[in-house]
Design a protein that fits this description.
homodimer; 60% helix; DNA-binding; Arc Repressor Mutant, subunit A; 5 helices; 3 strands
Amino acid sequence: MLNSPAPLDLVFQALADPTRRIMVERLSRGPASVSELAKPLSMSLSAVVQHLQVLETSGLVRSEKVGRVRTCQIEPATLQNAEAWINQRRALWERRFDRLGDDLATQNDDGDPTDSK
Amino acid sequence: MLNSPAPLDLVFQALADPTRRIMVERLSRGPASVSELAKPLSMSLSAVVQHLQVLETSGLVRSEKVGRVRTCQIEPATLQNAEAWINQRRALWERRFDRLGDDLATQNDDGDPTDSK
DNA sequence: CGGACTGTTAAGCATATGCTTAAGTATCAC
DNA sequence: GTGATACTTAAGCATATGCTTAACAGTCCG
């Protein structure tokens, strides 16, 4: 039991910050050290480390230290969980829209294609 | 273009709260009034209204008042924006994994397996 | 060894967030 | 009009968040 089930709360919370999204974007292109992550960001290294901790707690990022360098990488499964949640909601509302379409069709049933675009 | 581009910050921030995700889930199944949204939630109506404001500010929910009832519905496009962001990151890391596979294949290509461990 | 490099940790601070209670406003139903 | 219904708004409060600076701790290099 190394890592927690990474609740959606923490994942979305982590993604809510633009700095952290930049870090995730960078890591989507490949692993990076802490200072590489910090390079494009205009804030102290300390702040970057704190953002990194949020990302790791959320399960979005995993890191390992070798020598004096900590190398970070994304954990795709976690991002996919977030995506999956959104997908499931979409399934609900799309189902609803389909039924709505059926109802309209039923109402207009005797062939008059009102919105023929 | 009535409203602002609904920055991802606000969308992910809105989704970070479990109460608000319950509300979004409910609205994915169809429109609801404020008190209908509040029914499954163990907090004051006032708190629910405040959550609703967060959802509306994020662009995830739209609402309209008729008589004394405010009816709320989801705004699918906004959720899809969030999904799209995740999808785009995935495109990046998948591309990377593909190249990684290529490299491994190339390295092992012409038969001299010097360190076959 | 000594210094540069790469983080790490702690303290402090301003602002944001998620509630609460309490008081108010605008329907609707009789 | 009276009362119930359905929010709405404001104030207050505890905790969380996003930084900062400053001091500390390993690691590598000559």
